[in-house]
């Protein structure tokens, strides 16, 4: 058994939930915050048997889009913040950041 941990953008979260449940995957969603943008994202926990991992990855790939986002950089250390005009820079976010972990045991009581 594997645990798939997938960090996705909030915008893709409902679509991905529906697609996974339509294909009989069981999911738990956590409201999370990205360390870089400090914005909300959604982390899915998907427990499944090994033979279904590829199918789950395909569904995640299909339902999570890559997007560009503008970020305002913080003022440089030691710089004069009054005269500093942050120039937004573009970062590419997503589609999904996925970890596949082995599950040692699984219990439902
Ligand atoms: P954030 O940490 O908010 O990062 C959002 C996007 O900002 C990243 O998109 C990446 O394009 C950019 N970024 C992140 N750290 C950067 C840095 N130090 N310098 C320049 N650009 C940077 P993604 O790579 O698609 O990641 C989307 C979200 O997935 C992340 O949100 C974070 O919540 C999660 N994530 C990504 N890699 C991870 C990892 N190795 N471990 C845990 N969570 C991860």
From TrEMBL:
InterPro entries: CdAMP_rec (IPR010375), N-reg_PII-like_a/b (IPR011322), N-reg_PII/ATP_PRibTrfase_C (IPR015867). Gene3D superfamilies: 3.30.70.120. This is Cyclic-di-AMP receptor. It comes from the Bacteria. Keywords: Receptor.
């Amino acid at each position: 058994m594997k645990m798939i941990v997938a960090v996705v953008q909030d915008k893709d979260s409902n679509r991905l939930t529906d697609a996974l449940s339509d294909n009989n995957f069981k999911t738990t969603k956590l409201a999370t915050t990205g360390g870089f943008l400090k914005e909300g994202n959604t982390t899915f926990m998907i427990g499944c048997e090994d033979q279904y991992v590829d199918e789950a990855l395909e569904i995640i790939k299909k339902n999570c889009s890559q997007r560009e986002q503008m970020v305002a950089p913080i003022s440089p250390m030691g710089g004069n913040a009054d005269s500093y005009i942050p120039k937004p820079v573009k970062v590419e976010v997503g589609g999904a950041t996925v970890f596949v972990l082995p599950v040692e045991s699984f219990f439902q009581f």
